[in-house]
Amino acid sequence: MNIKKFSKPFKTILIENFLDIKDAMKIFSELKKEKFELKESDLFKFKQTKDLQFSKNKILRNFYSFLEKDFQKNAETFFGKKLSGKIDFAGTLYEKTDYLLPHDDRLESRKIAYIYYLSSLGKNDGGELVFYSSKNNIPIKISKRNFPKFNSIILFEVSKKSFHSVSEILKNKKRYSITGWLH
């Protein structure tokens, strides 16, 4: 496990080699069996599963349980935030021309956003997570880019400064991940 912590443009933690590779491969294999529905508006285009904590798939439910019981405590410590125990947990799939425009995730009781990558993409593929520095609650410039790397998880605080986006997928690649929020 390789852990990197960042404070700018907002508090972030990136953990590479998050799980044992065999476990990550099982999760990836089972996620691909789930039904993905198109989500599209002027701000985004991608595919998403229903809430996976209710999946009939035991491997995905076990991963949710791990996040809920063990991992959430570590996130509380790093971010210095008391969490309620509620976790949103869905699969996402971005394919060619899919994207997510800049936004801050502030909704309901969301405290920490997370993305568990189950595919890898490079600079020429698109699909990177882009963080923005902001001024007066408006994103003003790109501050950091994170390219998806299989079996890594990135977490960041949700705040009026946490503007981020997913750049358009440029090639015939697939960006699989499990995403959500810790409340």
Tags for this model:
single chain, globular, 2 helices, alpha+beta, 183 residues, twelve-stranded antiparallel beta sheet, Jelly Rolls
Task: Describe what you observe in this structure.
- The protein has about 180 residues and is an alpha+beta fold.
- The protein has one domain (about 1-180): Jelly Rolls, CATH 2.60.120.
- Helix content is about 20%, strand content about 35%.
- The chain has two helices and twelve strands; from the N terminus they run ββαββαββββββββ.
- The protein has helices spanning about 20-30, 60-80; strands spanning about 1-5, 10-15, 35-40, 45-50, 90-95, 100-105, 110-115, 130-135, 140-145, 150-155, 165, 175-180.
- Strands 1, 2, 3, 4, 5, 6, 7, 8, 9, 10, 11 and 12 form a twelve-stranded antiparallel β-sheet that branches.
- Strand 3 and strand 4 form a beta hairpin.
- It is globular.
- The model has no long low-confidence stretch (mean pLDDT about 95).
What separation lies between the terminal Cα atoms? 25 Å
According to CATH, the homologous superfamily is q2cbj1_9rhob like domain
CATH topology, anyone? Jelly Rolls
CATH architecture: Sandwich
Helix and strand sequence: EEHEEHEEEEEEEE
**Helix-residue proportion:** 10-25%
Please identify the top-level CATH class: Mainly Beta
Rg for CA atoms: 15 Å
